[in-house]
Write a sequence for this structure.
């Protein structure tokens, strides 16, 4: 029953915007002030000595000579890059890694150029460097901000030991489209969770002090809207309204900025007709003016030149002009700044003040990193040797992997497995795969370095394990920069798989996506189990119904058949180097899973975009049986297969006693009881959502506004209190202003976005005229 008790909370404060409030609260210590004062002085001093060409050089970033994360360069490029390095026409390099190689290019910049300005060395440290954490989407499933922060700091530890001082992470693009391969890199569909995770990752990478030898500059990307590429096709057009832009897309970027992120990366997509790279509204009006960002903006790979293909620039020269005016400070691999900017300035088309502003920003970050004091501070061979892959790093990525697993289904408590006297059949090529669990974006990790599921299970010797591949997921060689061929025909291994399933007490099927089936340029129109794996699953089920399905994938999958028939389903994503160990511990109950989905799982691809915080519409539910005119599909339910926030545990949790109390003029307390009804100790991510029932701009049916990870012993009960403040009830209107309106709200709490308890409240903010 809903409670209709009303709460009247009177505010004596006038309306204020969220960001203004945050700015007021930012305390700058005297030490910080004098540091930034002296850095600014040093920047000015250096800038005054630089020629126009040297300034433009700082704005030029080249890819290295080995790894490629974008279209291949033309022949003869290496010679030109070395020549430019020697002239001081390169401010940064990406994809140069390892102390030996970083030192080589840094030495040229520092010792052979006129001013000796060190390079900032960028790399995609997306989920670890050489020792890999789970893919970011999986980490997001932990909802564990401390663990995520730790994971980023561990990644920074390894990367910085290998010469890197700047990561192109975190990717904070919200996406509601599982077809888009890059959802594996982000934190999922929700702006609130996404913002918290953005903050945790930035703080993890950058640490307390950017000039420490083991911290690196972070980069919030891709600004903005990339996750809304039409039809989930990578690099595609983005057209979104103000409300979505401000309420859904911007918040994690703003959270990254509030957390002090030192760089941003713009984006391949156009946003409402203007490519993000040439978008002055995004880069100047919002980021640099409204949010006061004083770090620098790097373009995405070649995205300045891509404005020609977008149909926004006539040629390279115009593209460079548009980009620099719009606020793109550094050109990644378009070669256009280095070729065109100086001339554009001389012709009077670009004001040199814009160049100075960009260079100031870049130099500032280099000073903050301490690169001028010691350009080789990230080039310590000894540290590289002892840090990469050390046991503490393995322990940290294992811990993160355990926290990332989501138990989707566990009928009849098939899980956890008994440790003795079971005949277990393990089926699926991914069970024996030591590369796919590394996922995508793992350029510095070696193939075959993940612990496979079979290796993880082998550590439990009390049971008898047999293995059959069943079917390959992909055929032939694969790499980050190569198209993947999925096995759609070869079922020759089905017979063996079925025969081992026949005599097994339980069958573990490890199915899903190849490690390079998600990531950049890996969009899919069919997000079921790829290739012949669905048929394999159904045929094995025909022999033995006691199946535990372990999914390895980089995006939500549409698995309606499995959800209906298979008794236990474990979402194990791509868990990184320690994958198999984490999966085995979960299957055997040595770790009680607590992950919750950061993205809704659709029933089929036709439901996409599907997300929990949708709008109600004017015809939300079936008025009467037989009436057709309401917002629905005639062939499928509106609900997802597994909702955002869903995830089970070996414990059983019960929510009760929801209360809402006013604690001050601008704060309320939401309290409830959470009880562990089982004899298994466990953790629950208790979630709090609100719904604004009517507003000047309509609000979603639910919005996550708080959560807490609660640990409970067997049969233990705890009271959980989550505070909400006035700004939690506000939103951005259609002209981008943050407003807070009085009125009725519903507060929901529970273990997923399909929550269990709710209470209606009436919040009357008093305006101060
Ligand atoms: C991606 C970026 C990445 C860059 C450098 C681009 O293709 O979109 O996210 O940081 O390459 O590797």
């Amino acid at each position: 029953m809903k409670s209709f008790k009303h709460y009247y909370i009177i505010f004596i404060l006038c309306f204020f915007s969220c960001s203004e409030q945050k700015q007021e609260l930012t305390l700058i210590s005297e030490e910080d002030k004098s540091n930034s004062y002296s850095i600014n002085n040093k920047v000015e001093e250096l800038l005054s000595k630089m020629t126009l060409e040297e300034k433009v050089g700082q704005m030029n970033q080249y890819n290295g000579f080995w790894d490629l994360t974008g279209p291949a360069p033309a022949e003869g490029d290496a010679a030109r890059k070395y020549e430019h390095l020697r002239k001081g026409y390169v401010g940064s390099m990406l994809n140069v890694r390892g102390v030996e190689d970083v030192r080589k290019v840094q030495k040229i910049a520092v010792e052979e150029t006129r001013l000796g300005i060190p390079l900032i060395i960028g790399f995609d440290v997306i989920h670890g460097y050489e020792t890999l954490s789970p893919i970011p989407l999986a980490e997001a499933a932990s909802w564990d901000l401390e663990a995520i922060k730790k994971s980023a700091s561990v990644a920074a530890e390894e990367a910085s030991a290998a010469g890197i001082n700047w990561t192109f992470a975190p990717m904070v693009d919200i996406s509601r489209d599982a077809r888009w391969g890059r959802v594996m890199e982000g934190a999922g569909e929700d702006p609130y969770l996404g913002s918290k995770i953005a903050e945790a990752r930035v703080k993890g990478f950058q640490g307390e002090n950017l000039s420490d030898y083991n911290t690196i500059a972070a980069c919030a990307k891709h600004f903005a809207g990339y996750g809304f590429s039409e039809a989930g096709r990578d690099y595609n057009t983005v057209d979104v309204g103000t409300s979505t832009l401000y309420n859904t897309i911007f918040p994690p970027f703003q959270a990254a900025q509030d957390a002090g992120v030192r760089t941003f990366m713009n984006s391949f997509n156009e946003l409402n007709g203007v490519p993000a790279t040439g978008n002055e509204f995004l880069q100047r009006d919002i980021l640099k003016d409204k949010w006061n960002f004083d770090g620098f903006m790097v373009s995405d790979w070649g995205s300045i030149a891509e404005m020609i293909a977008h149909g926004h620039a006539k040629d390279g020269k115009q593209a460079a002009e548009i980009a620099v005016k719009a606020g793109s400070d550094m050109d990644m691999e378009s070669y256009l700044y280095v070729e065109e900017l100086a001339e554009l300035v001389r012709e009077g088309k670009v004001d040199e003040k814009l160049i100075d502003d960009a260079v100031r920003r870049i130099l500032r970050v280099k000073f903050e990193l301490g690169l001028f004091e010691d350009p080789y501070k990230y080039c310590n061979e000894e540290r590289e040797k002892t840090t990469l892959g050390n046991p503490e790093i393995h322990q940290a990525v294992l811990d993160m992997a355990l926290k990332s697993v989501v138990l989707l289904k566990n009928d009849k408590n098939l899980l956890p497995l008994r440790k003795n006297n079971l005949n277990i059949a393990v089926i699926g090529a991914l069970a024996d795969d030591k590369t796919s669990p590394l996922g995508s974006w793992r350029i510095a990790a070696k193939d075959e370095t993940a612990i496979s599921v079979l290796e993880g299970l082998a550590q439990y010797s009390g049971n008898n394990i047999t293995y059959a591949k069943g079917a390959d997921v992909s055929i032939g060689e694969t790499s980050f920069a190569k198209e993947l061929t999925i096995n759609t025909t070869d079922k020759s291994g089905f017979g063996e798989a079925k025969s081992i399933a026949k005599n097994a007490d339980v069958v573990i099927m490890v199915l899903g996506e190849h490690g390079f089936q998600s990531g950049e340029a890996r969009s899919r129109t069919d997000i079921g189990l790829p290739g012949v794996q669905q048929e394999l699953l159904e045929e094995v089920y025909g022999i033995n119904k006691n199946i535990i399905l372990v999914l390895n994938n980089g995006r939500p999958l549409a698995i309606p058949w499995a959800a209906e028939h298979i008794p236990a389903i474990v979402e194990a994503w791509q868990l990184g180097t320690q994958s198999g160990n984490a999966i085995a511990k979960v299957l055997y109950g040595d770790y009680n899973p607590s992950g919750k989905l950061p993205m809704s799982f659709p029933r089929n691809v036709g439901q996409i975009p599907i997300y929990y915080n949708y709008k109600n519409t004017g015809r939300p539910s079936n008025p009467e049986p037989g009436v057709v005119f309401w917002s629905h599909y005639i062939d499928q339910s509106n609900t997802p297969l597994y909702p955002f926030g869903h995830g089970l545990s070996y414990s059983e949790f019960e929510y009760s006693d929801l209360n809402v109390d006013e604690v001050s003029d601008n704060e309320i307390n939401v309290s409830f009881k959470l009880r562990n009804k089982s004899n298994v100790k466990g953790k629950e991510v208790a979630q709090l959502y609100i719904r604004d029932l009517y507003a000047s701009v309509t609000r979603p049916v639910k919005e996550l506004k708080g959560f807490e990870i609660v640990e409970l012993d067997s049969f233990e009960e705890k009271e959980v209190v989550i505070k909400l403040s006035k700004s939690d009830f506000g939103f951005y209107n259609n002209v981008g202003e943050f407003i807070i309106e009085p009125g009725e709200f519903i507060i929901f709490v529970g273990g997923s976005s399909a929550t269990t308890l709710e209470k209606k409240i009436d919040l009357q903010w008093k305006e101060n005229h």
About this structure: The pocket of beta-D-glucopyranose is lined by residues 69-70, 94, 124, 168, 221, 300-301, 520 (CB under 6 Å). The radius of gyration is 26 Å. Confidence is low (pLDDT under 50) at residues 1-27.
